[in-house]
Amino acid sequence: MQGLSTIPKNAYVWPLSIAIIFVICLHGAWAADYSSEQDFFTEIPVVLSASRLSQPLSEVPNAMTVIDREMIKASGFRTITDLFRLVPGTYVSYSNGWQPIVAYHGSTDDYARRMQVRVDGRSIYMPPLGSVSWEDLPLQIGDIERIEVIRGPAAASYGGNSTQGVINIITSDASAMHGFKASVSKGNGGIADASVRMGKSGENFDYRLSVGYRGDHGYDAVQVPIDGYPSISNDSYQTRLFNLRGLYHPNAVDSIDFQLGYTSGSRGDGTAKSLDPNSPHDRHNNEHFSQATWIRSLEGGDEFKLQFYHIYQDVLNSVPPVAPFPALSDSWTNTRDDLELQHTLHTSPDNRLVWGASARRDWSKADHKFLEDQVLKQSTLFAHDEWRVSSQWLLNAGALQEDNGMGESNISPRVALIYKFAPKQTLRFGISKAYRNPSLYEERGDYHFPELGATLYHASGGLRPESVLSREIGYIGEFPEYGLSVDMRIYHDQLRDIIFSTTDPIPDYTNMFDAQHKGMEITTKHHWGDHNQLTFSYAYQLLISPFTASANSTYTGTNYSETMPRNMISALYSTRFANDMAFSMCYYQQGSMLAIDRGENDRQQLTRRADIRIAKGFKSYTGGLEGEVAWVVQSLFAGRHIDYMDSNLFDRRTFLTVSVTY
Amino acid sequence: MLKPSGSENRFLTLLMLLACVAMSMSIGAQAKTLNVSLILSETGAPYQQFANTFKEALAARNVDVNIVVSDVVSKARSDLIVTVGLKSAELAISQSDIPVLVTMVPESGYRGLTNNVAARNDGQLVSAIFLDQPLSRQIDFIKAALPKLGRIGVLYSSGQGADLEMVRKVVARQDLVLVAQQVSDDGLFPALDKVLADSDVLLVMPDTSIYNSSNIRNILLTSYRRSVPLIGISMPYVKAGALCAIFSTPEQLAVQAAEAVSSYLRTKRLPSPQYPENFMIEINRQVERSLEIELPMQDAIRVRMESMGREVR
Fold first, then answer.
1. Across chain B, what does the average pLDDT equal?
2. Which of A36, A59, A623 lies closest to B86 in CB terms?
3. Overall average pLDDT of the B174-203 stretch
4. For residue A164, which of A34, A473, A649, B244 sits 20 to 30 Å off, Cα-Cα?
């Protein structure tokens, strides 16, 4: 010890440091190489939280159609709205090349106001018209993870305007995209699309980003003379899109999801008909949104969720002068802010309660559609409960109380009883009531052009919300031994106070008529072999009402019962071959019908349409780079058919898509 | 001189006897008290739970437990070191030559450690109680919980290839098929895509290069999207969204470790490295419902596993 004590203190430092470095290096090497207890004890963020887990079809309190990524790809569709052709009982058409109509069970007018549409919980059913600007939505079809379409009223869960159904679009998670993907499409009718997307996942931050371009010539592709004038429907469009989604998960229980999106595009509008002040021109539409969702996972699968979003829409519509008319302007902007909180809790192992509240402010500035700026403040309070009475019985009950901001307050209740009478065999009995609030335009609109000294529409106000009382019996059966599942329902909906336009010298909206909708829907899914998949849907529907649109210059007395086809079929078959080849074929059949706000000339006869998609994947020899070439033909066999109105003639479209992934 | 009387004689004998007994008792006590250093790798909850249970289980025994959370093995001389976690195991094996019972370390971590370090320290008495479950138990569990599923997917990295044949054999014993996919330089996702395409369940095999914090989230999401349930290895996995898992708690491991120490007290020998005796079954019922998979109750799964164990053995 004495000897040691004579050594200067500093002499320890070097050997000690070396020893420490050695130990650290050694430890570092092991930590990387060998599994440690950390693999077992480290907290993992709650990934599949209550709001992310989808309910199995057999436990959803409504009939629901799910369109997943595989189906989206196999369908060959470029636009989101076309996908709804796969939903039984859904009418998909276009009032022009960039303005789709999606109507489930009627309401086949150009704004299709009776379905709620949400993207990741963000309602895009917008004022002032009460419509969805599908083409302005900053979302590319390739960023969609799945779409759930609730068939039938679901106001108890989704609030006002869910009278005929709800479209829930779920986009892919921030972490779902890794690496880099680019794709280009080119086809006839001016089809030109391009997209680039990339993404990365990290320890507590993931993001994906996509930019894209989409455009075609709409129905300009087919020129049809109308009333002796060459039709220049002028509905070409180009859209540029940007979408960013990020997820920050700082710890095991919190996650903050945020999204930003932007679209900008030109939309052809106007006609070359003489004496039409709406001369050919381009509209310029912009839309952007931002959204943030904070989810806190609680014990026992409970969850707290707070969501805020902001949407801004801007339509710049300046119509150039055409003799004898002056230049016109019909521009408008729309702003929505929405805050919602939701708490999911398990009050017992057999009982789950979801409750929450929301507040929304819509602000429309449309000088030609209203006499003043419109601000609408809405709020909701909701709760629904899922009680597993026994292993066979499940009771879903819920209600939503809504203040529509226009002096009305409604309660929309829903009860569904689910009976699992045998393994994988389920019956559902549901009854619900839902309301559709009049849109701002229907209630307060005044469509006027002082330049022309004309008022095209004037709302006298005082509308009641439309209501629907819906009853249904559903059956869901799975037969795994045959690779088969069946989803079937019969329904009876009593609609009251349907709001429709009068034909007075200056049109107005009134609660004009009641109607009954009855029918049956069936979807079967069958898979066999390794890669064969067939989804088949059939809808039979009866619309009953004494209502007949009174004859005026445009609409020559549409009978309500024929505003939807009585029979509709859709089928999607897809298969894959060993050599990275994929083939899919879709078939759509729509019975004769006449859209509710169209005239006899616009009648859509029985329409049959088949689309095919053939794709071949490839890989670079060195690996890393993968790609696919896909060829799509829409309306392969049939000739031209009418979409919504006679000037919209759909002819065969074909395009080639090349995509690479790195 | 006074001769001692018979009664005095008896008294003295008794005294001597008593003294002998007392002496022998005190000597015995001194010889048998075992000084155990319990070295925790960290201060977190699992280590504390282990320590508390361990101390409690040995309270009635002749064992003096000295708990340290340390990067350096205590200089105080002990008879036996019990380590909790990989870090303390590494320190104890590399820095001391007294017997070490390694606990709460996965088997692969322990093997790696002993192969590298123990070689330098030949003759040291080292044994272990692993944290992970024996593969056969996991496969029994999958068979008992999900009897209709036939293909078990696993992901492995290049370092693990050698164990694969053993895994395949164990899986085949239950008439199941192993779908093994190596995660290569292309990254996780191509491998994940491939394994999910062909599997009914994805079984987690602990491997930091695959199941690390950046990847687990994506593995869970992707497998859920493909409706392929993930079989986890711990409670955090089940909470995060794995369908189910079997695992041993720190308390269960501590009880087993205490038993090993008691046996060391008697025999001066450590039992050979062993898997946990007791385990928990945890099921995420929300995920179960969402994926429309019906699992039996935990107790029923356990009973089925026990009957399988008897058949196989």
1. 85
2. A36
3. 90
4. A649
Mean pLDDT of B98-106: 93
Query: Which residues of chain A from 415 to 474 reach within 8 Å of chain B, CB to CB?
Result: none
Quickly count: other Cβ atoms within 10 Å of residue A348's Cβ. Answer: 9
Query: How far is Cα B218 from Cα B227, in angstroms, rounded to an integer?
Result: 14
Rounded distance, CA B131 to CA B154, Å?
Answer: 19
For helices B135-145 and B298-312, give the axis angle rounded to 10 degrees.
130
Rounded to 5 degrees, φ, ψ at A36 are: -120, 175
CB contact under 8 A, B241 and A249: no
- Our CA angle for B218, B224, B228, nearest 5°, is 115
B25 or B92: whose pLDDT is higher? Answer: B92
Residue A495 and residue A466: Cα distance in Å, rounded? 7
At how many degrees (to 10) do helices B213-225 and B188-198 cross? Answer: 30
pLDDT classification of A226: cutoffs 50, 70, 90: low
User: A110: closest CA among A597, A618, A636?
Assistant: A597
Helix (H) or strand (E) holding A363: strand A351-365
What are the chain A neighbours of B213 within 8 Å (beta carbons)? 42, 44, 203-204
pTM for the full predicted model:
0.86
Q: What is the mean pLDDT of residues B85-108?
A: 90
Cβ atoms of residues B82 and B261 within 8 Å:
yes
Q: Which residue of B has its CA nearest to A255?
A: B217
Total residues belonging to chain A: 662
Distance from CA of A154 to the nearest CA of B (A): 20
State percent of chain B over pLDDT 90. 52
- What was the pLDDT predicted at A29? 41
> Cβ contacts of residue B23 below 8 Å, gap of 6+?
none
* Helix B107-116, helix B86-95: angle, nearest 10: 20
Whether omega before A128 lies within 30 degrees of 0, making that bond cis, reads yes
Work out the average pLDDT over A172-199: 93
Q: What is the pLDDT of residue A222?
A: 60
Nearest by Cα to A329 from A484, A210, A189, A448: A448
Tell me what pLDDT residue B8 has: 58
Q: Are A164 and A468 in contact, with CB atoms under 8 Å apart?
A: yes
Contact B236 A43 (CB under 8 A): yes
Cα–Cα dist A149/B69, whole Å: 56
Q: Is A137 left (phi over 0), alpha (psi -120 to 50) or beta?
A: beta
pLDDT score at B165:
85
Token pair belonging to A79: 């636009």
Residues 6+ positions from A395 with CB-CB distance below 8 Å: A385, A386, A387, A389, A415, A416, A417, A418
Looking at chain A, which residue has its C-alpha nearest residue B216? Answer: A44
